[in-house]
Design a protein that fits this description.
Helix content is 30%, strand content 30%. By secondary structure, the chain is an alpha+beta fold. It has 2 domains: 1-23 and 207-244; 25-204, Galactose-binding domain-like (Jelly Rolls).
């Protein structure tokens, strides 16, 4: 009976630990396919490439020669990349980029609420055309004021285009992210080509998940205490009990 109880305790602990950590980190490695990512503008074409990534598969973006010139890139509306970043404990972003051509002039992580609103962008690099994979990782606080976000390097779509519609407040966007994307700026060069891999969000558990994690660890500790205080009986004694 005690062994069965201990097993239930350990199972509960593992479940609690999984819930605590699993919801706050989302990463896509593109090993199999494009994983639901789509071009972020009508100017781009997005394809999955099964090799040459960092490592294994990745996605590539290039110009659609039949469309006007806008930024290139990839976006996702998947639940593990969107939602309330503050409540979900999201405090960072990471991506691997490979610029196959040197005609880019900007690379950003961009978030916005929906397709009808503008958003906030985090510049990732000012170096292009290396033809090698590089990892870009940044941390942030989703509850920042606009002033704090700007001090950390974030900009709005209106900063890039004075005629653009003003973006909602940084904290407002972060509390209701509907689109998460890598946005690559290119002027008018039709040969633009870049690879994207290991798109991910990082962070720490939200308070409720921290409670679950603590519960899980406590259950494991309790199980060990019970095991020490109730050692298993020798086989001979257990057999004697059933004979009696």
């Amino acid at each position: 009976m005690l062994r069965r109880f201990n097993l239930l305790l350990i199972t509960a602990a593992l479940a609690a630990s999984h819930v605590a950590w699993g919801a706050v980190i989302g990463t896509e490695t593109f090993s199999i396919d494009e994983a639901g990512f789509v071009p972020n503008t009508i100017s781009g074409v997005l394809v999955h490439v099964g090799s040459g990534g960092n490592p294994d598969g990745h996605i590539q973006v290039r110009r659609d020669l039949g469309q006007p010139f806008f930024d290139l890139g990839a976006l996702s509306t998947a639940s593990h990349f969107t939602g309330n970043y503050a409540a979900d404990g999201i405090t960072g972003f990471t991506v691997d980029l490979n610029f196959h051509t040197d005609n880019f002039n900007g690379a950003f992580f961009r978030v916005r609420i929906d397709s009808s609103t503008n958003g906030w962008l985090l510049p990732l690099t000012t170096s292009f055309g290396t033809n090698t994979w590089n990892t870009y990782a940044f941390s942030f606080n989703p509850t920042w004021s606009d002033t704090d976000a700007r001090a950390a390097g974030w900009i709005t779509d209106q900063d890039r285009d004075a005629l653009a519609i003003a973006s909602p407040a940084f904290a407002t966007v972060m509390s209701s992210v509907g689109y998460a994307e890598v946005r690559l700026a290119n002027s008018t060069d039709t040969s633009a080509l870049a690879g994207i891999d290991n798109f991910g969000l990082t962070g720490v558990p939200e308070p409720s998940s921290m409670v679950l994690m603590s519960l899980g660890l406590g259950v494991v500790a309790l199980s060990r205490v019970l095991r020490r205080s109730h050692p298993r009986e020798p086989i001979s004694r257990r057999r004697a009990f059933w004979i009696l």
